[in-house]
UniProtKB/TrEMBL annotation, chain A:
Pfam families: Thioredoxin (PF00085), Thioredoxin_6 (PF13848), TXNDC16_2nd (PF24509), TXNDC16_N (PF24508)
Domain Thioredoxin: 418-518
Acidic residues bias: start-end ranges: 370-384
Domain TXNDC16 N-terminal: 17-117
Ranges of biased composition (kind: Basic and acidic residues): 345-360, 385-396
Listed name of the protein: Thioredoxin domain-containing protein
Organism in which the protein naturally occurs: Pinctada imbricata
Superkingdom field: Eukaryota
Residue ranges constituting the TXNDC16 second thioredoxin-like domain according to the UniProt record: 120-214
Segments of this protein annotated with the region Disordered: 345-396, 884-914
UniProtKB/TrEMBL annotation, chain B:
Gene Ontology molecular functions: flavin adenine dinucleotide binding; monooxygenase activity
Domain of life: Eukaryota
GO CC terms, sorted: endoplasmic reticulum lumen
Signal peptide limits: 1-24
GO BP of this protein: ERAD pathway
Protein name: FAD-dependent oxidoreductase domain-containing protein 2
SUPFAM superfamilies named among the record's database cross-references: FAD/NAD(P)-binding domain
Length: 914, 626
């Protein structure tokens, strides 16, 4: 009687007798009863599990019970009398028997739980047995509910239990259904053979078509992970305060950061667009809360009240942290991604299916290699070919690849009108100033820039000049671009007052575009009629770093003309101011030490030389070429913006690599002094930041001097490929100046030379000539010549294979036309025979059956049938993925910003490359 | 007043004939005479007009395009008038507009004239008339020229002019002659005894009632034959069609001149055993006899063949009518009989023999335009049809401009960084090379050691060895871009819907079956010898490098990885440079550490036009790196 003792000791099993049977069974809920008749071997295990399950099932309102049939009073119960009842568990609801479950299927907690919950939810969680049933179910919930749909290898498994428990808890918010039939998941995931279970969210609520969009659940199937997943899905990804409620539902237990966007009426649209972009990109990597600050009192400690604005609160933070930079697509993305708990890079994978595919590919490739092992030959060859394909077809153009990867995020082009053949002429005509970007959608450079262009338009949104940026897609409007003689893509053409001013020739950079528009929107040159105007103009300005002032007397008419003309032609780059009635005489003298006529280049950010007075004759070309170099800082930081202009001066560079420590400051000051004194007018003294190994400057320096320390000074003669490194153990004005002098005098040996590299094609394209030759060889082996029936079929009776009539005229002309040479071989007699036979029996091949080839014989070189080629495609795809690790280790390294936090691996390769 | 009755030019002519004999001395002299104001005559006229050349178009009737007043007999054009393509690209849209001529006037697009996919022929007549008047083309109607000839060159002057007369006795001279008369003479075979019993397509009744309850035999299997059969098969007992070659369905052969689906109703009734039938036989072996008001087709038997073997002869039943639809041929009667005019060989014999520069092989300065130039691409491309010859006419005009007026072939030059863009743009929009695949191709001349290139659009690829002399552009390294179907893909009886009909693999692009771009790189211009030795069936001789761009379901070759990337690798091989784009920062890094820079850095970054990624793009690149 040991087992019965177990039952008696159990915590959750209710023992009932005949008397309480009726009230026990009367409830609506499911009840479970086991009728104990005798001790059978498997019972002990069962009872243990039954007890445990009872504990859980009680939570769902399902009591589990045992009736002891050995007791006299109970013996009369039907079930106690029934044969074999000891091998079953019985379920009831509303006093009626529901279903009996075989004891052997109830071997552990999971099986008991899942079976009983399944029973409990039989209507709520239907078991669908085919794809048709699934689609019917989807159809039923289309537009109404989202469905969690599970494939279970069997009923009663752990995964089944997890699914049922969660289903029980969330049945109000979602529909749940499951299948044990692989056929029913057709179209969802083809790789379930080896798995116990898979779960998909069928997004039928928003679905217009069938089947509903689906998303596979990728995490492990355990109760907490799946429950959290369902819970996450039960809350909306975006919550509006206060429209959707007073408090958002994104509690920290959901495990995701919350991104707050603050807006008011005027900025709502911007915020909405940004949220859309974010949700599109990040998916479920964070929650988003849109706060209407006019209707909701924000109590975030750090919030400064601005809109649009963004803040991020990670799960372990009490309060959100707000972004400080001005709002732009870029800055918001940068801020959010940097702040998020989860590694943004993982989240950021543009295509979630990648990871899945890799898993699948492992399975696929292992099985296919098994097959290959059995085939002895050509394994290496095909591997070679595959390798070659992935080499040729792996993108090694970073611009192209970045554009391709970014394509899923819509560009913000709302403020960039896309002009047509009708609107282009009117826009150009009507607007005082408009820049038109002519681009091609398949040009990577165009598309990379278009994104920046859109952002530039956003930054210019609040300027007085309305929509200064527009675009023409030259693939859509080839006629418009043709009339404008566009042959370079992208071209940014600046139109002023209805006619072409010039083509923009600056960097394809959003800030440069913004700057250009702002400068062009100004009156240029500005008329500075009073001393106040002049004084105001020469004050440093945060917005523009270079200004040029011209001070003239009335008599300087030719100088004024030249100045104005220069101002006009450079009016997209520099702000000019002019006084032409002598009022500037005093200021010119006192501030700049010049007499009229006087032109001064003002550089607000140049502490060494904040202004330069033009020293030569007022001739346009002279002035322009002077401005070209004088506008640069006297000791510039080497950046992408200034380098090209500096390089063109054809002078050696002395480059200091500096960080924020005092030694660096000292070196900087020494060099500033040298610059100020103009000791080396033929040397460009410049600097770069080298504060961490990842920083751009350090990477350059590490090429010059692998064992570097900061600060460092290198003398680089780019045109002669020579690099000299100063030993920087002692820095003093004398040592630095002396060293530079020694290098210029050729007294110092060269430390190293620049990398020699020919920029020839990196990867050869496909050699189609070879492919064709190979195929031809194969073809000739297979069929020596085309059958005549074939020619007749194609060209008709009485014609040769080039479509020429075979007659006396033809033979006469045979020698004059070499292309038709081969036709002489054709047998006229055979043809006539065929011809006659055709007239009587125009069924093809009746006489000459043996010479009529079936299409199958004809095309053996063609690759494969449907199934095989599909496989080919997949393998090809997979190879592409496998290559991903290696393919960008190429010769054009990506040099990241100094703020970048790259992985050590990519740094290493960058160092090698540089 | 009375004197004015005499046409004064006549007087002048007589006078000047005697004394001077210079060009200007002929009263009816033009630099260019175009014979025929059909679509091709008007098209070439338009180009001459645009360039302000001295030209006249002679038209024997009183309307432009008079062929279309009569033909097609049942009045439905079979050139598509696709008004919507989903694209706003006007050049691209011409790919699907087979009726419009080329001009700068957008109102002269056929879509404004008809909403029908296959418009009524009267619409085309109206269109051609508008084309003439709106563009102010110099057409001289009611002028049927005859006796075209060119006297020997030593005739007391170095001027070597074409002379001709009209039926009113006017005499005309011109320096260059452009024959744009089409192919409009009905082809009546003289080898079939009794052919006179047959009624020709040109005269056949278009009223189905005239065929009520009759048995009809149609000779021919072209579009005219089927058009005729389609129009009457609801009225007849049966229609038999006989032609010597197998039916060539346009959708099997990709040749628009073959039987079009719009006309092929009879194929159904044949294959569904509804009495109508089609068979193949040569007309040389038969004759037609009339007995008891019925027409019989009889087979010419040799004496030694036993007649009883022929008891199942397919055409043994009599017919009520026989309709001859055997096509058209070129009308040679406009030439004086001293003017030699060779005709093409074999099936091309209905066309005058011309060179790839559209010039008569017999008569210098005599050119052909329009459907009579179809010998060059017969059964291949669209040179016999408006949507093809509108482009060959333009090519001819470009050739003439250089040859006679020293105006080089239109072109533009761009830095090599624009090479891929320029090519991809053309591949995806150009209509001329698309319609005239295998005939007109874009030619890229690499210049300046591969730093620049020049593109010449729609050049006759068969003249590639004469590129410099025919265009005025120096060339040695060139890339020819040609559109091609796969060899052996199409043809009558081929299963063009077979499951493996298309490939998607860029590495298998050379087995592409559908129209796809093929690029030929030559490191020196092919010679005439090279051209002659080209493998039969190949358009061009073996190049230094060859590239196929894989066929595309949408015929849109803009996929970054499948189309553009392999193309770049090919072009890099041809140019000898790394053509990748590089972001500015990388260029700077390279500039400070390398002796040489990638081409893109030199062209863009070093010119102050480097490309800066937005933050979001930068992230993408970083992901590539990590």
């Amino acid at each position: 009687m040991q087992v019965w003792n177990y039952i008696q000791d159990s915590k959750h099993i209710v023992r009932i007798s005949k008397e309480v049977m009726e009230p026990f069974l009367s409830g609506e809920q499911v009840r479970v009863i086991y009728y104990y008749k005798k001790d059978i071997p498997r019972l002990r295990n069962f009872v243990k599990a039954y007890d445990k399950s009872g504990g859980y099932l009680n939570l769902y309102g399902v009591p589990v019970a045992v009736v002891n049939c050995i007791e006299e009073g109970n013996k009369v119960l039907d079930k106690c009398k029934a044969e074999g009842s000891e091998n079953r568990v019985y379920t009831y609801s509303n006093g009626h028997e529901l279903l009996e479950l075989e004891l052997e299927t109830m071997f552990d907690v999971n099986s008991i739980m899942s079976n009983i919950l399944q029973l409990l939810l039989l209507r709520e969680v239907p078991i669908l047995q085919s794809k048709t049933e699934r689609l019917e179910y989807e159809a039923k919930h289309k537009g109404a509910n989202n469905v969690f749909f599970a494939y279970q290898k069997a009923i009663g498994t752990y995964e089944h239990r997890v699914f049922m428990e969660v289903a029980y808890a969330y049945q109000e918010k979602f529909k749940f259904a499951l299948t044990t039939n692989l056929e029913a998941i057709d179209g969802l995931d083809s790789n379930m053979e080896s798995s116990n279970a898979g779960i998909w969210l069928l997004k039928c609520k928003a679905s217009k078509d069938l089947p509903c969009d689906n998303q596979k659940y990728l995490d492990t199937i355990d109760l907490s992970a799946f429950a959290r997943h369902v819970k996450r899905n039960s809350v909306p990804p975006v919550f509006n305060l206060p429209k959707d409620g007073k408090e958002h539902p994104y509690t920290p237990d959901l495990g995701l950061s919350v991104v707050y966007f603050y807006y008011r009426e005027t900025t709502e649209k911007l915020v909405r667009n940004m949220i859309k972009m974010m949700t599109d990109t990040l998916g479920q990597a964070a929650w988003f809360v849109a706060v209407d600050i006019e209707k909701y009192l924000v109590q975030h400690v750090n919030y400064n009240g601005e809109t649009p604005s963004v803040a991020v609160q990670n799960t372990d933070e009490r309060d959100p942290v707000q972004m400080e930079d001005p709002w732009s697509d870029d800055s918001v993305f940068e801020f959010v991604l940097d702040r998020l708990d989860k590694n943004p890079r993982q989240i950021f994978k543009p295509d979630d299916s990648h990871s899945e595919k890799t898993e699948m590919s492992e399975v696929e490739s292992s099985s296919s290699s098994d097959v290959e092992e059995n085939m002895e030959n050509s394994e290496d060859q095909s591997a070679d070919e595959e390798g070659r394909i992935s080499e040729v077809e792996s993108q090694d153009d970073h611009v192209a690849e970045a554009v391709f990867r970014a394509r899923k995020i819509d560009m913000d082009l709302e403020l960039v009108p896309a002009l047509t053949d009708k609107t282009f002429p009117t826009t150009v005509q009507d607007k005082n100033l408009v820049m038109v970007l002519f681009y091609l959608p398949f040009d990577h450079r165009s598309m990379a820039f278009l994104r920046a262009y859109g952002e530039a338009s956003r930054k210019l949104e609040n300027e007085t000049i309305k929509e200064p940026l527009a675009s023409v897609n030259c693939h859509d409007w080839t006629d418009v671009c043709g009339k404008e003689n566009i042959t370079l893509y992208p071209t940014i053409r600046i139109f002023k007052a209805g006619s072409v001013f010039k083509d923009y020739d600056g960097m394809l950079d959003l800030h440069e575009v913004v700057k250009t528009v702002k400068i062009m929107a100004k009156e240029n040159p500005q008329d500075l009629s009073t001393n106040d105007d002049i004084g105001h103009f020469i004050k440093p300005d945060t917005e523009v770093d270079v200004k040029i002032i011209g001070l003239f007397d009335k008599k300087h008419s030719s100088e004024i003309k030249a100045f104005k003309s220069v101002a006009k032609s450079l009016s997209d780059k520099i702000v000019f101011g002019i006084n032409s009635d002598g009022k500037g005489k005093e200021i010119g003298k006192s501030k700049f030490g010049c007499t009229l006529p006087c032109m001064v280049i003002l550089k607000a950010n140049d502490t060494i030389q904040p202004f330069t007075v033009y020293p030569a004759k007022f001739e346009e070309n002279l002035m322009k070429s002077f401005i070209y170099t004088a506008k640069l800082p006297s000791m510039p930081e080497l950046t992408v913006q200034v380098f090209p202009t500096l390089y063109q001066q054809n002078k050696p560079f002395a480059i200091a690599f500096l960080n924020e420590h005092s030694e660096s400051t000292k070196l900087r000051e020494i060099l500033s002094e040298i610059v100020k004194k103009q000791v080396f007018p033929d040397i460009i003294i410049a600097w770069m930041t080298c504060d961490s190994h990842q920083s751009f400057g350090c990477q350059v320096l590490s090429f010059y001097e692998p064992q570097f320390s900061t600060p460092a000074l290198s003398f680089v003669v780019l045109h002669e490929s020579k690099v000299f490194n100063m030993k920087v153990d002692t820095i003093s004005p004398e040592t630095v100046q002396g060293w530079i002098q020694d290098v210029s005098d050729g007294k110092i040996p060269v430390s190293r030379s620049l990398e020699k590299k020919e920029w020839t094609p990196k990867v050869e394209g496909y050699n189609f000539l070879e492919f064709i030759d190979r195929d031809e060889k194969r073809k000739t082996r297979i069929s020596r010549s085309k059958s005549e029936a074939d020619i007749m079929n194609r060209e008709g009776i009485g014609f040769d294979e080039n479509g020429n009539e075979v007659d006396s005229e033809y033979y006469e002309n045979l020698n004059t036309d070499s292309k038709e040479d081969e036709d002489a071989k054709l047998d006229q007699e055979t043809r006539m025979e065929l011809f006659k036979s055709r007239l009587y029996h125009h069924a093809e091949g009746r006489k000459h059956g043996e010479s009529v080839k079936t299409p199958k014989d004809e095309v053996p070189i063609m690759p494969v049938e449907g199934e095989e080629s599909e496989l080919d495609f997949m393998e090809h795809d997979i190879t592409g993925l496998d290559m991903e690790d290696h393919k960008y280790k190429d010769d054009i390294p990506y040099v990241p910003h100094s703020t970048d936090k790259s992985t050590s691996k990519s740094q290493k390769s960058k160092h090698e490359e540089l | 007043m009375y004197w004015s009755v005499f046409p004064w030019p006549y007087l002048v002519t007589t006078v000047v004939f005697v004394f001077h004999f210079t060009t200007s001395s002929f009263p009816h002299h033009h630099d260019y005479c175009v014979i025929g104001a059909g679509p091709s005559g008007l098209q070439i006229g338009y180009f001459l007009h645009q360039k302000h050349r001295d030209y006249v178009i002679f038209e024997r009737n009183n309307v432009s395009g008079s062929f279309y007043v009569q033909y097609p007999r049942h009045r439905k054009l079979i050139s598509i008038n696709k008004r919507h393509t989903g694209s706003t690209n006007k050049e691209f849209n011409l790919r699907h507009d087979w009726n419009s001529l080329l001009s700068h006037d957008e109102s002269l697009l056929f879509k404004h004239y008809s909403k029908e996919m296959f418009p009524h022929a009267d619409t085309l007549v109206k269109y051609l008339q508008d084309f003439t008047t709106k563009l102010g083309l110099n057409v001289q109607y009611n002028t049927e020229v005859r006796d075209i000839h060119r006297p020997p060159a030593n005739h007391s002057t170095d001027q070597n002019l074409y002379h001709m007369n009209d039926l009113n006795g006017n005499h005309y001279t011109c320096s260059k002659l452009i024959v744009a008369t089409g192919i409009a003479e009905p082809n009546v075979p003289d080898i079939v005894p009794g052919i006179d019993y047959a009624v020709g397509y040109e005269d056949v009744s278009i009223n189905p009632d005239d065929f009520e309850g009759q048995s009809v035999l149609v000779l021919g299997r072209g579009n005219a034959a089927f058009e005729t059969a389609d129009a009457i098969y609801g009225s007849t007992n049966l229609i038999h069609m006989v032609s010597r070659s197998r039916i060539r369905l346009a959708w099997e052969t990709h040749y628009v001149g073959d039987l079009r689906a719009v006309n092929n109703g009879l194929l159904d009734t044949y294959q569904l055993k509804s009495q109508d039938a089609i068979l193949e036989a040569g007309l040389e072996e038969i004759h037609i006899v009339k007995r008891n008001n019925k027409l019989y087709v009889e087979f010419d038997t040799d004496d030694d063949v036993d007649d009883t073997l022929l008891d199942n002869f397919a055409l043994r039943q009599p017919y009520d009518k026989i309709i001859r639809c055997l096509g058209f041929k070129f009308d040679q009667t406009i030439f004086k009989n001293t003017t030699k005019l060779s005709m093409g060989l074999g099936r091309r014999r209905k066309y005058p023999k011309i060179g790839y520069n559209y010039e008569s092989v017999d008569n210098p300065d005599m050119f052909f335009a329009g459907t009579n130039t179809h010998s060059l691409d017969f059964r291949k491309s669209a040179g016999g049809f408006i949507h093809g010859f509108r482009y060959t006419a333009r090519s001819l005009h470009n050739l003439l401009e250089w040859r006679y007026h020293q105006v080089p072939w239109p072109s533009h030059t761009a830095p090599i960084t624009q090479l891929i863009n320029t090519i991809i743009k053309r591949l995806n929009e150009a209509s001329g090379t698309y319609q005239m695949f295998g005939v007109l191709g874009d030619v890229i001349i690499l210049k300046n050691n591969g730093v620049e290139f020049e593109i010449l659009e729609e050049f006759p690829v068969n003249l590639i060895h004469k590129l410099s002399e025919t265009t005025g552009h120096d060339a040695s390294r060139i890339i020819v871009i040609n559109m091609e179907y796969g060899k052996g893909f199409s043809g009558p009886g081929k299963d063009i819907f077979r499951p493996d009909r298309a490939t998607q693999e860029p590495s298998d692009a050379h087995v592409s079956n559908f129209l796809h771009p093929v690029l030929y790189y030559y490191n020196r211009l092919p010679t005439e010898e090279d051209m002659r030795r080209a493998t039969p069936g190949d358009v061009l001789p073996r190049p230094t490098l060859l590239h196929h761009i894989v066929e595309d379901f949408l015929a849109l070759w803009d996929a970054p990885n499948s189309h553009i990337l392999p193309l770049r690798r090919f072009l890099e091989g041809a140019v000898g440079k790394d053509l990748r784009e590089v972001f500015a920062e990388i260029c700077l890094g390279l500039a400070l550490t390398h002796e040489a820079l990638p081409h893109s850095c030199k062209e863009h970054f070093m010119q102050g036009q480097g490309l800066m990624p937005t933050y979001y793009l930068r992230r993408q690149v970083e992901m590539i790196q990590s």
